[in-house]
Amino acid sequence: IAAAVDIWARGPAALPPPRQPRTPVLPVEGERNVLITSALPYVNNVPHLGNIIGCVLSADTFARYCRLRNWNTLFVCGTDEYGTATETRALEEGLSPRELCDRYHAVHADVYAWFRISFDHFGRTTTPQQTRIAQDIFQRLLARGFLLQDTLEQLRCESCGRYLADRFVEGTCPFCDYAEARGDQCDKCGKLINAVELKNPQCKICRGTPVVTPTQHLFLDLPKLEGRLEAWLERTWAAGDWTANARHITRTWLRDGLKPRCITRDLTWGTPVPLDGFRDKVFYVWFDAPIGYLSITANYTDQWERWWKNPEQ
């Protein structure tokens, strides 16, 4: 505080010269290196003020603060572009998912540029780098025995020749009998729904009646990781960097025991699964999208691992 008061009294001339920006921004030995990301905005809409405040503004404020402190700072973000929401919106607009993503990625980039959000790089998740890194992480999990196979029952539309993701199904809610419930949630009673539980299900594309069909999927074997996760959490909780709310939510998940989580989907729009027997499937967007932080950095610089695999700096 005394140093801040002293500099304030002496005015801007007392400030150190601003850091000259390098391209690309890479970690520098002996300096404070700061990598900043913000939540990847979903691509299928035009961002509004609430999105900007809730998504990128706080990270932008912190990035500006870091640069004013002359810390070596990299700030990356990008649009999250895979998933059923993109397919649904593309159908509504008569576009392919790629065309829809190209359109809205440009809209997002223009809006954030207008607000002068100070990204060093604003990318996207539908890139060759995303495919390469996501598939590499998948192969590492597979080689280490952290994946398992199981059968799920899903709705399949024979007329369309496809399994129907949750957002492609509508029907009557099994809890409150609301006639326009979605395959993942009822907007009337708010309860989460498994699509096969819907009464009178209909395919949103052709309005045909789908049938329940078994299909093989891959799961992340979270119970096998539970012990290592708990040990890691205890170490990081002891460091004091977690909020009380974050600790409480995490403890609740662990208290109830982790369950295997499905990481594949019967869709065409997504990162392909590189495994025989599953090559007609893609990765579930919540397995795939967080890897976007790595791939967006990799599209910014081929030395991306110096940021993501460099704990000493």
TrEMBL record:
PROSITE patterns: AA_TRNA_LIGASE_I (PS00178)
Keywords: Aminoacyl-tRNA synthetase, ATP-binding, Cytoplasm, Ligase, Nucleotide-binding, Protein biosynthesis
GO biological process: methionyl-tRNA aminoacylation
Domain spans labelled Methionyl/Leucyl tRNA synthetase: 34-311
Intracellular or extracellular location(s): Cytoplasm
Gene Ontology CC terms: aminoacyl-tRNA synthetase multienzyme complex; cytosol
InterPro entries: aa-tRNA-synth_I_CS (IPR001412), Met-tRNA_ligase_1 (IPR023458), Met-tRNA_synth (IPR014758), Methionyl/Leucyl_tRNA_Synth (IPR015413), MetRS_core (IPR033911), MetRS_Zn (IPR029038), Rossmann-like_a/b/a_fold (IPR014729)
Reactions performed catalytically: tRNA(Met) + L-methionine + ATP = L-methionyl-tRNA(Met) + AMP + diphosphate
UniProt entry tagged with the keyword Metal-binding: no
GO molecular function: ATP binding; methionine-tRNA ligase activity
EC annotation from Swiss-Prot or TrEMBL: 6.1.1.10
Family statement: Belongs to the class-I aminoacyl-tRNA synthetase family.
Protein name: Methionine--tRNA ligase, cytoplasmic
